[in-house]
Specification:
It contains three helices and no strands. By secondary structure, it is an all-alpha fold. The chain is flat and about 40 Å long.
Length: about 60
């Protein structure tokens, strides 16, 4: 449970960085998202998920 909470907290930190550093650009991007085709959003989401899995896999280390 501790690992899960640490991962959740780290995710929240990374998610908050653009809103804190670049609020105007985030708003502009949010206005453009509804105009993007679903297929483009799916590809972006899939690539981000795979990149995240690779980071977890290679950065996970060993427990033994």
């Amino acid at each position: 449970m501790s690992l899960f909470l640490s991962a959740l907290g780290l995710m929240m930190v990374f998610e908050g960085i653009p809103y804190f550093c670049f609020p105007k650009q985030v708003k502009a991007f949010a206005r453009k998202v509804p105009e993007m085709p679903d297929s483009t959003l799916r590809v972006i989401g899939f690539c981000l998920m795979m990149a995240g899995l690779l980071v977890v896999y290679f950065g996970g280390g060993t427990n033994g």
